[in-house]
Amino acid sequence: MEVDMIQKPALAVDPPDENFDPDQTPETGEQYLQKVMYERGQCPMVMVAAKPQSCGVEKTLSGMAALPLDPVKNSAHQALMPTKEWESMQNKKFSELRDTITAYRVSPQYDENLQRTHVFLNFEDRKQLHEYCANNLPYVRILLSIPQRNLEILLEYLHEWLQESELAAEGNRSVTSQQDEPSSDQDLVGDATSSVTTTATKQAQRGPRKDWITQWIYAILSCLIKPLEPYIHSVLRDIAKTCITVRNELRQEDETKVLPLNLLISIISKNFNQSDLADNVV
Questions:
Q1: Residue closest to 246 by CA, chosen among 55, 254, 175, 126
Q2: Is the peptide bond before 227 cis (omega within 30 degrees of 0)?
Q3: Is 175 helix (H, G, I), strand (E, B) or coil?
Q4: Which of 16, 23, 44, 77 is deepest in the core (most CB within 10 A)?
């Protein structure tokens, strides 16, 4: 009985009959409600949305964000492509490095390091950052003293510099390192990237260091705290795509130049959810 009372219409309005004219403008409240009842009766029980027209750019989920699926065509010589064994070894080293840095962040030495490290960088001054990175090695104590937001900004700049670098343009520039001797090998992220360069310390002694951009990218990747913002996944994806594009332009004998490119492609694709850019799909 109570249900019947709830279902009673609030207003008793006769439904539109055969003489109802839907094109006529309602003049009374009753006519308005009859028109509403008529229009409701014309609606199908099931509505199917029309398929949107394609804009020519498909999308897929990459990392934490929806990114355009614009695969880079890999046309590099087979001799320049990494093997599964090499990639496995490099990713293992990278994971161990990240684990070491994560453990260091919760150690008492971490707070002491922050108190001792005094590097003042203006992250709105691209020229200053470029000069600093080109002339200094990526020390752990320096990177860990920089807030992650600033590391992300620097990562974007490094990607732009990578596109303009001699790796991409067979460069006419030389950069002389002015960094002092590291206090220990453990203090240098670059030393962990033996596949990127020979030994970062030795290169600092010799002078020109043409691969400083890839060293800094690798070092920042090892220090980033997950989860990352969606746009950072996009930046990482762009870095890997740039590496693939540059590798496509190298010749078969350019095995030394391809090492840092292969390393960044492997690290980003395997560790930062960009598996569609991987060279060896596992």
A1: 254
A2: yes
A3: coil
A4: 16
- Reported as type and span, the H/E element at residue 96 is helix 84-105
Q: What band does 21 get if pLDDT is binned at 50, 70 and 90?
A: confident
Owner of token pair 């350019």: 254
CA 79/CA 93 separation, integer angstroms: 23
Please report the pLDDT score of residue 7 as a whole number: 58
Pairing, β 59-62 against β 65-68: antiparallel
Give the span between the Cα atoms of 94 and 74, in whole angstroms.
Answer: 24
Model's pTM, two decimal places? 0.65
Asked whether 154 and 235 are in contact (CB, 8 A), the reply is: no
- What's the mean per-residue pLDDT of the chain? 77
- Percent composition of the chain: helix, strand, coil (DSSP 3-state, to 5): 55, 5, 40
Instruction: Read off the DSSP letter of residue 68.
Output: E
Exposed, middle or buried, 9 (CB in 10 Å: 0-12/13-18/19+)?
exposed
Look at residue 255 and give its three-state secondary structure: helix
Number of other residues whose CB lies within 10 A of the CB of residue 135: 15
Q: Are 239 and 162 in contact (CB under 8 A)?
A: yes
Closest CA to 261 of 86, 98, 85: 86
